[in-house]
């Protein structure tokens, strides 16, 4: 599978201004240099894939972007204005939402309660201030329907959803609360074929709403299926950004591995890696 | 991928009303109440289910139930408090000392007792959250600390005895007393007796002078707790904090605040029971509330709370406590040996835990 044409890709995004732009980001932990000069940007309505093998610095980079870590060097600008995040909350307020691998979801709680966890809408005043359960239920069902998932009811427990569906709830929740940039940390890594394609479809849908998606993965095929641009991270550095159509899966794979052994391996495995 | 026409998942069967009901946490406790009622309707003397018989078993049920609601809220929030039984004794001492030794009016004594309890609850909670130790072990320490403090304190306050008397005289005539002791709605029951609607003694007085106030507190607390859990953002936070601490705090839930407040609430429930029972008996002693922490937790578990947190209900704990009251008192209306109670207790707990475990799997779709 070289090119996957399942998804419709947006118009060329080169003209639009990036929402977030990160330039020459470095992050040191003591004497360990986790990031050694990473540049990355996201434009509205695109899916920018960040590829890298384990240990390449993907997690550190996402955490810098979502405000968990402060960069040692480098600048982050949002809509052209320099930003200095001191907490994930700052990043969230700037419209950067992160869906981490654990999804921040509670299996025993209903979809509606999970959807609004920590941000419950209320009605009434004073001691009568209460959760607006009707609005919560309605919004949860409606947002999930938009993402192509029909709930049995808003009180369905998240535990009964499949991995892909949970991922979709987490994405829908981030978008509902006004995310302009959505960072997805390995959203497809633990999923089966069918569920993966559901999540990729969700990414496509979110992108069409004008949200900039940062898709972190080490799976080149998943990335190529939805990505508009591809940036490869290797040993804490970016090795350049390619646009869709400019690069072959093999080339991406090689970049991720640093261009070494994979070539030989691929020969012996018949090009299946 | 076409998603405009959404097809319902063909592998999802429609849920029947039975399947949906079984997922309510309080269902087990309600079923238990029905079972126990049927049992005593058959075996017990018919006087058990007269109005005075009901008041008879509802009074201990209410005293336990107030604790059980506190324990249930805390369990849903993912923590335990084994010290609430000892808290009853300790708060009893504080209350007794306030009223008898220092002669404070109730308007000061009651808030002071509640505040001390809340403070100890906050200490419990802070230690648990700061150290990350299981609340089981931290509060087990407080189970002994508070019991010991009650003994020592009582000896100091009473001059060598482990009982402090004279509370009734001290609170006599206090305008707040009727809210925490005695029976409510007395005039109503007098009127009902005159109208011949309730049973009366030969002299025309009603057999029950009113509804014991603890029952009203019990019902009120159960309603408020249920409302908070199901209808307020704070209730959602309680479920979230108990369900998965990290996920909850990543979503912006103030987990620490929620859990400490729950510890404080549970401790204050213990203090409320202390205030009510001490005023009722007129004295306080160091054995007050002995083993009640376990009974409260059992009532909460029977009421559908999971030991792992994140699931349960206050109304379930309400019914769990009623089961307790019915069985303890109900056995005296039968020919059975009363010591069957303990066997029943253990059996009921085991069944409840098995049942809850099954329900949890149903809810989360685990296999």
Automatic annotation (TrEMBL), chain A:
Name listed for the protein in its UniProt record: Monosaccharide ABC transporter ATP-binding protein, CUT2 family
Species of provenance: Poseidonocella pacifica
Molecular functions (GO terms): ATP binding; ATP hydrolysis activity
Domain ABC transporter: 20-260
Cited CDD domains: ABC_Carb_Monos_I (cd03216)
Domain of life per record: Bacteria
Database matches in PROSITE patterns: ABC_TRANSPORTER_2
Pfam families for the chain: ABC_tran (PF00005)
Keyword Membrane in record: no
Keywords, comma-separated and alphabetical: ATP-binding, Nucleotide-binding
TrEMBL record, chain B:
ATP-binding as UniProt keyword: no
One annotated GO molecular function: transmembrane transporter activity
Cellular component GO terms held in the UniProt record: plasma membrane
Keyword Glycoprotein in record: no
Keywords tagged on the record: Cell inner membrane, Cell membrane, Membrane, Sugar transport, Transmembrane, Transmembrane helix, Transport
UniProt xrefs under Pfam families: BPD_transp_2
Chief localization: membrane
Localization, UniProt: Cell membrane
Membrane topology: Multi-pass membrane protein
InterPro entries reported for this sequence: ABC_transp_permease
Transmembrane residue ranges: 21-42, 54-75, 82-102, 210-230, 260-279, 300-328, 340-359
Function summary: Part of the binding-protein-dependent transport system for D-xylose. Probably responsible for the translocation of the substrate across the membrane.
Protein name as annotated: Xylose transport system permease protein XylH
């Amino acid at each position: 599978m070289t090119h996957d044409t399942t998804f419709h890709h947006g118009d060329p995004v080169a003209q639009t201004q990036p929402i977030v732009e990160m330039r020459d980001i470095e992050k040191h932990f003591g004497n360990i240099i986790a990031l050694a000069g990473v540049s990355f940007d996201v434009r509205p309505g695109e899916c920018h894939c960040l590829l890298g093998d384990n240990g390449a610095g993907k997690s550190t980079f996402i955490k810098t972007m979502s405000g968990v870590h402060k960069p040692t060097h480098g600048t982050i600008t949002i809509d052209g204005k320099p930003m200095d995040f001191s907490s994930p909350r700052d990043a969230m307020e700037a419209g950067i939402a992160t869906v981490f691998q654990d999804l921040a979801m509670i299996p025993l709680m209903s979809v509606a309660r999970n959807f609004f966890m920590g941000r419950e809408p209320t009605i009434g005043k004073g001691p009568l201030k209460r959760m607006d359960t009707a609005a919560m239920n309605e919004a949860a069902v409606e947002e999930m329907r938009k993402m192509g998932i029909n709930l049995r009811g808003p009180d369905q427990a998240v535990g009964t959803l499949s991995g892909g569906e949970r991922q979709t709830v987490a994405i829908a929740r981030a978008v509902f609360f006004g995310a302009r940039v959505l960072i997805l940390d390995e959203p497809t890594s633990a999923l089966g074929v069918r569920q993966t394609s559901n999540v990729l479809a969700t990414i496509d849908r979110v992108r069409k709403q004008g949200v900039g998606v940062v898709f972190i993965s080490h799976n080149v095929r998943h990335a190529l299926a939805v990505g508009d641009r591809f940036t490869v991270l290797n040993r804490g550095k970016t090795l350049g950004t390619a646009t869709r159509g400019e690069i072959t899966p093999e080339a991406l794979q090689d970049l991720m591995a640093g261009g070494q052994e994979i070539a030989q391996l691929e020969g012996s495995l018949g090009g299946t890696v | 991928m076409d998603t405009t026409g959404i097809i319902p998942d063909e592998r999802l069967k429609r849920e029947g009303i039975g399947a949906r009901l079984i997922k309510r946490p309080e269902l087990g406790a309600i079923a238990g109440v029905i079972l126990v009622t049927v049992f005593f309707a058959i075996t017990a003397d018919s006087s058990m289910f007269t109005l005075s018989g009901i008041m008879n078993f509802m009074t201990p049920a209410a005293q336990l139930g107030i604790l059980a609601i506190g324990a249930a809220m805390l369990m849903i929030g993912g923590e335990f408090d084994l010290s609430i039984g000892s808290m009853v004794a300790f708060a009893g001492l504080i209350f007794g000392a306030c009223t008898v030794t220092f002669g404070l009016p109730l308007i000061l004594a009651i808030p002071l007792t509640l505040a001390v309890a809340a403070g100890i609850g906050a200490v419990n909670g802070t230690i648990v959250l700061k150290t990350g130790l299981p609340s089981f072990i931290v509060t087990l320490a407080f189970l002994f600390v508070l019991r010991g403090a009650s003994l020592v304190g009582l000896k100091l306050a009473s001059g060598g005895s482990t009982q402090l008397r004279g509370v009734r005289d001290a609170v006599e005539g206090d305008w707040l007393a009727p809210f925490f002791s005695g029976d409510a709605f007395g005039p109503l029951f007098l009127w009902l007796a005159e109208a011949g609607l309730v049973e009366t003694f030969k002299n025309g007085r009603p057999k029950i002078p009113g509804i014991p106030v603890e029952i009203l507190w019990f019902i009120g607390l159960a309603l408020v707790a249920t409302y908070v859990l199901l209808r307020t953002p704070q209730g959602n936070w309680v479920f979230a904090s108990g369900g998965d601490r990290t996920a909850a705090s990543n979503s912006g839930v103030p987990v620490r605040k929620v859990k400490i407040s729950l510890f404080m609430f549970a401790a204050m429930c213990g203090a409320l029971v202390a205030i009510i029972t001490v005023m009722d008996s007129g004295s306080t002693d160091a054995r007050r509330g002995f083993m009640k922490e376990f009974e409260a937790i059992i009532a909460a578990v029977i009421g559908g709370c999971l030991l792992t947190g994140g699931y349960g209900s206050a109304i379930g704990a309400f019914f769990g406590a009623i089961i307790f009251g019915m069985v303890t008192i109900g056995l005296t209306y039968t020919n059975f040996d009363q010591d069957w109670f303990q066997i029943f207790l253990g059996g009921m707990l085991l069944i409840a835990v098995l049942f809850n475990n099954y329900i949890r799997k149903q809810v989360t779709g685990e296999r």
